[in-house]
Amino acid sequence: MERETRPDIGYLVDQLEETEKDTIQMEEGQICCAQHQESVLRLVLYLHQFNASGPNRNEEVVVHTNHVHRFGTIIADDWVLTPTSDPNDTIVGRVQGLHMQAGQKEGNQWYTSFNLVFEDQRFAGSTLQVMGRTTAERNGEWSIVGGTGKFRRAKGTIEFTCLPDPSPFHFLKKLDIEVFYTPRNS
């Protein structure tokens, strides 16, 4: 059986440097992609969480456990995002996902995973996929692990700061979003 020969990596790198095209056609239909131009966007938004025991709730307990520290409890979320801390301001997006109590030895150790779905005209329908840990600490960070629409190939972070709660049922977080993404070619 004859071994298939392929161009070496040095040859491919030289070819990439010499071309202005986005791709190089290789033998037998294989494609090697040139590096895409990445863009960065920084946003400040406010997350409004109305817990499941209050009016205007935007989360629901879907799995309740009797374990100490509520270990295993799962809550579905449809939190709203606004450009200011006012919950009556224009909704620019939603945080749709879940958070699960993941700490057996202490409370407030939430695994958080959600799609940040934009509704404003500029990014309508685009999403960021986010995951991370939420604890009793006032500050924290989540990872942006993907995106769709205007935020293709997204990565980045969301630093959050818990602000004073406007009511016992309304939790407010300031989100400092930094997202790197590949713009869709026009």
From TrEMBL:
Keywords: Apoplast, Secreted. Signal peptide: none annotated. GO terms for biological process: phenylpropanoid biosynthetic process. It holds the Pfam family Dirigent. Gene3D superfamilies: Allene oxide cyclase-like. Its main location: secreted. It is found in: Secreted, Extracellular space, Apoplast. The keyword Metal-binding does not apply. GO terms for cellular component: apoplast. The keyword Secreted applies. InterPro entries: Allene_oxi_cyc_Dirigent, Dirigent. Dirigent proteins impart stereoselectivity on the phenoxy radical-coupling reaction, yielding optically active lignans from two molecules of coniferyl alcohol in the biosynthesis of lignans, flavonolignans, and alkaloids and thus plays a central role in plant secondary metabolism. Belongs to the plant dirigent protein family. Homodimer. This is Dirigent protein.
